[in-house]
Amino acid sequence: MVAYVVHENALFAREAVYSTPNGAIDGFDPVAFHTDGEAIQGSKDFVTEYRGATWRFASESHKLLFLHAPEKYAPQYGGYCAFAMANGYTARSDPDNWTIEGDRLFLNFDDETQQKWHPDRTALIERADANWPRSGPGSQDVR
Length: 143
Hints:
It contains 6 helices and 6 strands. By secondary structure, it is of the alpha+beta class. The strands form 3 sheets. A two-stranded antiparallel ribbon has the order 1-2. The chain starts with 18 loop residues before the first strand and ends in an 8-residue tail after the last helix.
């Protein structure tokens, strides 16, 4: 469960991975974004725990790929919105709003946010990478 304070769709992250009752990425398979090029709902039959969250997978083979290299398949910034992280705060993400860039999975809040993020994603990724330790779990930086 994620503890948060709401402020214009922002939240104060206390958990390393954004999760819903369905788990990390709202129960979607993190490997499928990379291997299948689409958001695929994971199954309760193929699960693992990683960084304090439950991760679901569409198949045993996807689970094994994740277990072998979780940092390769897990979304950046603990699955929080990449656009928000670039702007110094955390916000929930929607697995339907995703991009693979440089073999890294980025999630965003909604369609509108994804459209804002996409054209300038290289610069926004640099800012988000710099902000993640400061604005990530346990930070006080909420906007």
